[in-house]
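Bug report (template v2)

What were you trying to do?
Predict the complex of my protein with ribulose-5-phosphate.

What happened?
Run completed; filing so the output is reviewed.

Input:
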Amino acid sequence: MDQDTLKTLVGQAALAYVQPHSVLGVGTGSTVNKFIEALSQAGIPLQGAVSSSEATTRLLLQAGIPVLDSSAVQSLDWYIDGADEIDHQGYMIKGGGAALTREKIVADLAKQFLCIADASKLVDVLGQFPLPVEVVPMASTTVVRRFHALGGQATVRLNKEGQPLVTDNGMHIIDVRGLRITTPQAMEDDVSVWPGVVTVGIFAHHKASVCLLGSPEGVQTLR
Ligand code: 5RP
């Protein structure tokens, strides 16, 4: 079974967490795209969704799902999103799709975070996947230097034209390789207060409540 099929399986399995007529928080990425496809095919009526990116908004609207502004919502029961890495405690690295800031904002509105991922994302220690950090462009160099001092190799993410990628929020992304994130909560706290950091892609304070992990043996539920 290839990775794409596993993503389809977990996208479909996530439907079990969707309450008809509810408002759902929806993440970003190829796994979430499978979920939106499954949602659209299942025809479950929703009051709407709060979206974490322009890309997800486009897909939701194409699927006929109303997109609500986050300010119109007091709280959500579920936020459904993928991850670049997840450990056995539910701590995650996110932001491979550059949507980490809005993802954290929508996750913060939700009582529970449902992570949908293929089994390749499960790790013992976070950090094999380069840690994405969204930064104010002016702060890129100082943030890169700070990560170098911690032993990481940090680079500004480039777009297809070789220019710094610009996020939905008009910011840049720094990707940090070579970190072993053994204390995710502490590192999230530390990096979050560096001047110019908008969001660090460690989701420890907003860790997964439940993870649906797709493997060739089927979909496993981790709590
Ligand atoms: C986007 C994210 C995604 O959840 C993460 O990159 C996983 O993506 P995919 O489902 O395509 O593997 O954090 O910013």
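What did the reviewer find?
The first strand starts at residue 23 and ends at 26. The CA atoms of residues 25 and 50 lie 5 Å apart.
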